[in-house]
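Q: How would the C-alpha cells look for this protein?
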Amino acid sequence: MVDVEESLEESLERAGPSAHRLHIDGLPSDVSDAELARRFTPFGEVREASVIRGADGACRGFGYVSLHAAPPEVARCIKAYTGTRWRGKRLAVAPASEDYMTRDAGQEQPA
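A: Here is the predicted structure in C-alpha cell form.
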C-alpha cells in the first residue's frame, strides 16, 4: 500500500523550498482573494491568493494560493483542507500543475 501523504511530501520536496502553488477547487461563489489568503495563512506565508472569475466577475469555483512553506507543512495544509466544507462547498486542494495554470491564464498549451 502506498503512503499518499509520504508521496505528496516527496513530490513537494523535489519542487524545493520555494513558494508552492496550490489549486483550490470548490470555492464559494462569494469568496474574496483576501479571504482565501487568510484561510491558508496558518500553514505558511501566503505570497498570492487569486480567486478565478469569469468575464461577469462571478467566481468560477476555483483559485490558486502561492504558499511559502516547508514541504511537510504544505502537505499538512493539503490534507487539512481537502474534503472540508467552506460555506457549504466541499474543497479540494492539490499542487497546481503547469497545464492548469497555463489554461486558466487563457494561454495556449504547447503541442
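The first helix runs from residue 4 to 15.

The radius of gyration is 14 Å.

Upvote if useful.
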